[in-house]
Amino acid sequence: MTPVLALNTISKNYGPIQALDNVSFTVPKGCVFGILGPNGSGKTTLLGIAMDVLRASAGNLRWFDQPSSAELRKQIGTLLETPNFYHYLTAVQNLRITAEIKQRGLDDIDTVLKKVNLYERRNSKFTTYSLGMKQRLAIAAALLGNPDVLVLDEPTNGLDPVGIAEIRNLIKQLAAEGKTIIMASHLLDEVEKVCTHVAILKKGKLIAAGAVDEILVNEDVVEIGAANI
Ligand code: ATP
């Protein structure tokens, strides 16, 4: 089957710092794909390159077996950094603004709010939301336009245990609906719980990639790649 994303020998330098070194792997359709590595291992850089926010120093990639393009990237919802929601507007008002900026998803607002379990609180001001609710609203914004693929950078970072559990369940639910999810995480435990596939990065190098139940049972790989995770 055609992979959703194929990375081919991607490298990235920031001046003298090599953030990514010759990274290649593919993301199969319908999986929850974890990009696992400690802080500074290159996860955010990799997602930035995948979404064309950053330019690779070398290598190339394909989405849906085609060269990346703005048109193709419309099939991908992203949460790469905290969105700038307006604190004194409601969830509905904030999503309306996001949909207008993105020029898609205006008709999806009720649907995405139900999906992330915020429909009952849709008319509350953003400022009254817990951190977990704010993060679920950010995922709702990424779901506008009903993308087939979601790219999430550390989606549970900074949340309390309840918020973490809610986001993990939401990710599993979205995957069960058929979406492909690519998510960065520095938590081995999170990848084991949520992901079906994993790529382990360490200092910009790919240590291993494949199905979680094949990769994370290999003690050598976990020891080499994830010792600091
Ligand atoms: P974190 O979880 O801390 O964000 P990460 O795994 O996402 O880590 P990156 O943020 O991609 O890793 O960083 C990879 C390397 O590139 C690090 O050494 C980082 O300091 C460096 N780096 C990232 N962005 C820049 C930048 N704009 N300029 C210079 N160096 C950078």
UniProtKB/TrEMBL annotation:
Keywords: ATP-binding, Nucleotide-binding, Transport. Transmembrane segments: none annotated. Residues 5-228 form the ABC transporter domain. It comes from the Bacteria. The keyword Transport applies. GO terms for molecular function: ATP binding; ATP hydrolysis activity. The keyword ATP-binding applies. Belongs to the ABC transporter superfamily. This is ATP-binding cassette domain-containing protein. It comes from Deminuibacter soli.
